[in-house]
Please model this.
Amino acid sequence: MPMPLTRTVIGVLMGGRSGEREVSLRTGRAVHAALLRRGYRAVAIDTAGDLVGALRRHRVGIAFLALHGRGGEDGTIQGFLETLGLPYTGSGVRASAMAMHKVTAKDVLECAGVPVPHGTMVATGAPGSASPPRAVPLPFVVKPGSEGSTIGVTIVRKRSQWRAALRAAHRYEREAVIEAYIPGRELTVGIVNGRAFPSVEIRVSDGFYDYNAKYVKGRTQYLCPAPVPAPLERRLRELSLQAYAALGCAGAARVDFRVTPRGRPFCLELNTIPGMTETSLLPMAAAAAGLSYDRLCEEILKSAVRRAAMMKRGHA
Model:
């Protein structure tokens, strides 16, 4: 690349109506600018508007998904684009839906041999939800079953915090995931088209990598490559690729871990459309591997090219 694809209009789909709209807009604008710099015919499209009309008006031939949260990462937009016969970047309907639904993703990863924190699920109005589950001792984490960017997440250290934490999670999703809090370090591994990049360590002053810590400059320290022993680095990349394959992912993904003081990693989740803002981790990891931001966008674009070829063969 660039190749004959420079003649194809690439619609960068961003925004939407999820709780991660603002982050998605920042990701989309950055991707759009990068594609223009590389000579592509790219248009920015906010999916909160008339999406079908915009796709037709601009004669979009490929969709670059820069959507986060519901409607973007859960298989919804992927399924919609498939009904239109429009190739898109990243994971397909099934992988997106499974990865977004934390309970399902944990089950799949655990069956694939990827270590995950012990936990359970509490639905809205479930019997016995007035008290924290005995199966998960304090401290534990409460989070919505299908949200990203640490929205609605609480670390519960005292029983008195339980009800407020559950309400915060249920505000976004009827299912709340309750899982053991893993003490130690926060690390993440970015993947593009089956290639794992160097891991990134995330250090937050108050120890909680929340929404502000993720998207406000100066709140968090990032170390890339992460200062970890070579065996642990190999293990993190190995588990990341294992998780990526188990869920059937394509294109870009980011796999988040907590690593205990003894060096034991636990996979927290897999994000099928990682952030691509100025503070995002995937571009940082790609840069450590020698891949510029613009080249990274092109690599992600290749997943749509592959999907276009598959769709063409399927209709042959």
Remarks:
- Residues 293-314 form the longest helix (22 residues).
- Residues 152 and 168 are 5 Å apart (CA to CA).
